Structure formats: structure tokens, C-alpha cells
């Protein structure tokens, strides 16, 4: 098979397939491109992980386990498409778009949610119930609230059952219409033996050492039971969600939080899109005016570049942020810069007296090293930013990295393909169409002579 015969059709097929695949991935654009918090509004929280007696060191595995628990809890809130990522070795970034109750989300992220059952002495129950009533009536009553938070737990017996032994939990109501939590056990026989031995004794229920209630065991309990206490309906929903998601392996603390309103995000989106379109339009006009036909071909390649970049955002399910749009626009500049280098080199070859076909071949070949070096250094910088950066910095680095990679491909392959088509079929190949006057053809060689 003669490669020269099939080279152009194969290149055309690759370009066409790229366009069609990108369109398939991008459309409809409202569903394929996910907007970041700064464009659609939401809540961003940075969590610091702290070691505990059970987990003395924060490792990547501990980070991953914590992310899994947080993800299950957030999904229980009904938040669509939360973004949870590692930050460094001991932090986690949580981004919640369109969250309706930020305070509830904060509680979910901070509360370890270790549920424990203990057999509690009756005098401890009496004191704990009194302290719970006093604390609810006056949260500033330090003594009462401290006893509820830690004292009752310390004064009770050993842990006889825990939340990790539960199969599931659901928010519900008792016979009197008060909010409570229904639960099912993984091992009914084990829970049955425990409650059989403790009939007539108070079974204390503690969440993160915090006293909830201590109902008296009236009869053996096997497959299911109830957690009662002074709950509101929202509290039972949150607690049931936490129990189903599991306990956090370590203590967490919110060290940074940021809320963005949807109205502000929409304004920023509109302004950034207009700025991007204006910048892109000026670039297209500049290329067409200065470089004539090659400039128009570069504009067409630039349109393909934008389409491929949108496809990459869609397939990677990355969120488009304001810094991401900035990286996107900056990479467009990189793409234009590559074409400028190539076309200026092409003009120099024409000035040196080469034919149009030779000028295109040599111009692209000799400009490649400069184009590749400039793109490669940007790719390396964007890669380092993505690996070490956090939050919106990652969004900027992501679009800059892939934008530069794609712009390199469109400059040296797509634009070259379009220019080669014109030269091969001798269409619009007059020097004037390439920004060179006929009188200037071979001017370099005449000067040397």
C-alpha cells in the first residue's frame, strides 16, 4: 500500500472521527459539563484529620476510609454530585453544590458517630436524665452538659454492643408519635443473648460518648429495636444516616469553609463566558487578518480544539470553575502562539525562494522544536500545579494541562492537515493568500547573492 495515496484520506478520517466523537460526548452541553461551586453556588469545606488512640497515624488508607464514610453520609442528604478529594496527607476537601442545609452538612462531617450500648446503673440513669433535661433547658449549664457528654459514659459499664454491629437504621416514630430510630442487627442471636441476660436493666445508648437514653430492657430483642431519646425529626434523620454510613475512623475538624450563593455564581459564569468569547473572537480575527488563508485554517483548528477540550471535561466529569475557564483561555493563547511560530517560519521559507509545497513542509518541520519546547514546559508546570495544588488551583491546572496538550496536537496535526489539503489540490496557494507579496518571493536568496 502506497502511504502517500492513503495519507490524506486517513488523516481526514481521524479528524472527522474526533469531531463526531467530541460532539457525541459534549451534547447536550448542559448535562455533560459540570459547573464548579464558584459558578453554580454551594458550600466548600476543608477538613483536618486528627489521630486517635485507635488510629495513631493518619495514612492514605485512613484518608480513603474517611472519604468513603463522608461520601455515604453526604449522599444520604440528597446532595447531587458532591466532590470529595484528598488534600495533602491529612486533609480532605468537600465541595457540596446547591446544598440546602449547610449546618446539617457540617454536623455530618464533624460527628464521628460511634454508637455504643452499655448496661447503665440505675443511679447513673437518674443522674443522666436529670442532667440531660437541665442541659436542654440551659445549654450554658456546663456541669449538666458535661455529664451528658462524658460523665454518664464513664460511670457506666463496659461496651456490650456497638453501631458497627447494626445492619441498618431508619428514622421513625414511636407509638406516642415521638421521633425515634428503628434499627436492625447483623447478628440477631448475639443481640438476643445480650438482652436476655439484661432483662430489667437499663441499656444505655451513647453516641460519641454522649448520653442519648437508657430504656429498660423489658424482653429479649433479636432482629430489630428502637433508639429513643430527646430527638427532633431532623436529628433522627441525621443520626440514621450516620449509622448507615458508618463511623468516621478519626476525628475531623472543619478548618476552612466557604459558601457561594447561586446568584453570584450565575453572574460570574455569564461574565467569564462573555470574556472568553470576546478573547476567542479577537484571536480569530487577528489570525484571519494577519495570516490570511492559513489564519482561517488555524481558526478552524481552534474551533476543533475547543470542541475536544469540552469533550475532555465531559468524559473526565471534571467541574468547570472560574480558574478553570482562565486556564482554558490561556491554553487557547498557547494554541495561537504555536500557529504564529509555524506561519512565520512558513513565510520565511517563501522569502528564501522555496516552492509553496516545500515551504509548508520545511516550515512545519523547523518550527516544531520551538512549538514543542514551549508547550512541554507549560505542560510540566501545569502537571506540578495539579499534583500539589488544591481546590480551584487544581481546576486551573487541569484545563491548562489538557488545553496545552490538545493545542499542541491541533497546531502540528490538524492545522498541518488543512494546509496540506490546499497545497495538494493547489487551492488558494497564491503567496498573497499566505501573507507574502509576489515581489518578496526569494528575497532572502537575492539579498545573499
SSE arrangement:
Layout: H1 3-26, H2 29-32, E1 34-35, H3 37-40, E2 42-50, H4 60-77, E3 83-87, E4 91-97, H5 102-110, E5 115-119, H6 122-137, H7 142-155, E6 159-162, E7 166-173, E8 179-185, H8 188-197, E9 203-207, E10 210-213, E11 224-227, H9 233-245, E12 251-260, H10 262-316, E13 319-320, H11 322-351, H12 356-388, H13 392-424, H14 443-448
Parallel strand pairs: 1-13
Antiparallel strand pairs: 2-4, 2-12, 3-4, 5-6, 5-9, 7-8, 8-11, 9-10
Helix pairs in contact: 1-10, 4-9, 6-7, 10-11, 10-13, 11-12, 11-13, 12-13
Keywords:
single chain; 449 residues; alpha+beta; Multidrug efflux transporter AcrB transmembrane fold; Alpha-Beta Plaits; Gyrase A, domain 2; 3 domains; 4-stranded antiparallel sheet; 14 helices
Distance between the termini: 44 Å
How many domains would you count in the coordinates? 3
Content of β-strand: 15-25%
Provide the residue-averaged pLDDT: 79
Helix run count: 14
* Spatial strand arrangement across the major sheet: 3-4-2-12
Architecture of the largest domain, according to CATH?
Up-down Bundle
Shape: rod-shaped
Task: Report on the architecture of this protein.
The structure is a single chain. Helix content is 60%, strand content 16%. With 449 residues, it is of the alpha+beta class. The chain is built from 14 helices and 13 strands. The mean pLDDT is 79. It has 3 domains: 3-36 and 261-448, Up-down Bundle (Multidrug efflux transporter AcrB transmembrane fold); 42-111 and 255-259, Alpha-Beta Plaits (2-Layer Sandwich), CATH 3.30.70.3400; 115-247, Gyrase A, domain 2 (2-Layer Sandwich), CATH 3.30.1360. It has helices spanning 3-26, 29-32, 37-40, 60-77, 102-110, 122-137, 142-155, 188-197, 233-245, 262-316, 322-351, 356-388, 392-424, 443-448, and strands at 34-35, 42-50, 83-87, 91-97, 115-119, 159-162, 166-173, 179-185, 203-207, 210-213, 224-227, 251-260, 319-320. It is rod-shaped, with a radius of gyration of 33 Å. Strand 7 (166-173) and strand 8 form a beta hairpin. Helix 4 runs antiparallel to helix 9 and helix 6 (122-137) packs antiparallel against helix 7. The strands form 4 sheets. Strands 3-4-2-12 form a 4-stranded antiparallel sheet. It has a 4-stranded antiparallel sheet with strand order 6-5-9-10, with helices on one face. A 3-stranded antiparallel sheet has the order 7-8-11. Residues 65-120 form the Protein translocase subunit SecDF P1 domain. Its main location: membrane. Keywords: Cell membrane, Membrane, Protein transport, Translocation, Transmembrane, Transmembrane helix, Transport. One of its GO terms (molecular function) is protein-transporting ATPase activity. InterPro entries: SecD, SecD/SecF_arch_bac, SecD_1st, SecD_SecF_C, SecD_SecF_C_bact, SecDF_P1_head.
Amino acid at each position: 500500500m502506497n502511504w502517500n495515496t492513503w495519507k490524506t484520506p486517513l488523516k481526514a478520517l481521524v479528524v472527522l472521527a474526533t469531531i463526531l466523537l467530541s460532539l457525541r460526548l459534549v451534547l447536550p452541553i448542559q448535562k455533560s459539563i459540570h459547573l464548579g461551586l464558584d459558578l453554580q453556588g454551594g458550600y466548600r469545606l476543608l477538613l483536618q484529620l486528627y489521630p486517635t488512640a485507635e488510629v495513631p497515624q493518619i495514612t492514605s488508607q485512613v484518608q480513603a476510609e474517611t472519604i468513603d464514610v463522608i461520601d455515604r453520609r453526604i449522599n444520604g442528604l440528597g446532595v447531587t454530585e458532591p466532590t470529595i478529594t484528598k488534600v495533602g496527607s491529612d486533609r480532605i476537601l468537600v465541595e457540596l453544590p446547591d446544598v440546602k442545609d449547610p449546618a446539617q452538612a457540617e454536623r455530618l462531617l464533624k460527628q464521628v458517630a460511634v454508637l455504643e450500648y452499655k448496661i447503665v446503673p440505675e443511679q447513673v440513669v437518674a443522674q443522666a436524665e436529670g442532667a440531660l433535661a437541665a442541659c436542654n433547658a440551659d445549654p450554658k449549664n456546663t456541669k449538666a452538659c458535661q455529664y451528658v457528654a462524658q460523665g454518664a459514659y464513664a460511670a457506666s459499664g463496659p461496651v456490650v454492643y456497638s453501631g458497627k454491629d447494626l445492619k441498618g437504621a431508619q428514622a421513625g416514630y414511636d407509638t406516642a408519635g415521638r421521633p425515634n430510630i428503628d434499627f436492625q442487627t447483623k447478628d440477631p442471636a448475639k443481640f438476643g443473648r445480650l438482652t436476655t441476660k439484661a432483662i430489667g436493666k437499663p441499656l444505655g445508648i451513647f453516641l460519641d460518648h454522649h448520653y442519648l437514653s437508657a430504656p429498660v430492657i423489658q424482653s429479649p430483642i433479636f432482629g430489630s429495636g428502637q433508639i429513643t431519646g430527646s430527638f427532633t425529626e431532623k436529628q433522627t434523620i441525621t443520626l440514621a444516616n450516620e449509622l448507615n454510613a458508618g463511623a468516621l475512623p478519626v476525628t475531623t475538624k472543619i478548618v476552612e469553609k466557604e459558601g457561594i450563593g447561586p446568584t453570584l455564581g450565575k453572574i460570574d459564569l455569564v461574565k467569564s463566558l462573555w470574556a472568553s468569547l470576546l478573547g476567542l473572537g479577537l484571536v480569530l480575527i487577528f489570525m484571519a487578518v494577519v495570516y490570511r488563508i492559513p489564519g482561517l485554517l488555524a481558526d478552524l483548528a481552534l474551533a476543533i480544539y475547543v470542541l475536544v477540550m469540552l469533550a475532555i471535561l465531559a468524559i473526565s466529569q471534571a467541574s468547570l470553575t472560574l480558574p478553570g475557564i482562565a486556564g482554558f483561555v490561556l491554553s487557547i493563547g498557547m494554541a495561537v502562539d504555536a500557529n504564529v511560530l509555524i506561519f512565520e517560519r512558513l513565510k520565511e521559507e517563501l522569502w528564501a525562494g522555496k516552492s509553496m509545497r516545500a515551504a509548508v513542509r520545511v516550515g512545519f518541520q523547523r518550527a516544531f522544536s520551538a512549538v514543542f519546547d514551549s508547550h512541554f514546559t507549560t505542560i510540566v508546570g501545569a502537571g506540578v500545579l495539579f499534583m500539589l495544588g488544591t481546590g480551584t488551583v487544581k481546576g486551573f491546572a487541569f484545563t491548562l494541562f489538557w488545553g496545552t496538550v490538545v493545542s499542541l496536537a491541533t497546531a502540528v496535526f490538524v492545522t498541518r492537515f488543512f494546509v496540506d489539503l490546499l497545497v495538494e489540490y493547489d487551492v488558494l496557494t497564491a503567496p498573497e493568500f499566505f501573507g507574502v507579496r509576489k515581489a518578496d518571493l526569494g528575497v532572502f536568496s537575492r539579498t545573499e547573492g
